[in-house]
Amino acid sequence: MSGLDDVVLLNGFVRHETEYGDGVSIDHVDNLHLAIALHILTTKKALSPKEFRFLRGELELTQDALGDLIGVDGQTVARYEKGSTPISGPADRLIRVFFVINLMPEDQMKNLLSEMKDAIKQDELDQKEPARFRENHGKWEEAYCG
Q: Could you tell me which residue ranges the HTH cro/C1-type domain spans (predicted)?
């Protein structure tokens, strides 16, 4: 199901026989996966390789796609998931952040990710100019000059 060793279901499942042997049906599996992911996200310990792989799977990302998001190549992600390379602190934090972003409504998530990518690309140019902010009716906003 999840590939995680330390997950125990107390109820919400039915054991049954199939033509291939013993089987298990799990009620509301998408909600279960979300509950497991939220548990993983909120634990203070470093992610295990299996937890890292589980979160990537829930994000529906390939190893290469996740690598692009966190700044490593797909082979590094594969080594994280196999346990042959320790998961770096930044990679651990970034996959957690991307999972939380994934919980946002789709239009907000796409806008935020697009803005983040643009900001990273423009980083060198933006460093030459100070960040400018303007107060507008009690709300601060970035003032763009251009």
A: 52-88
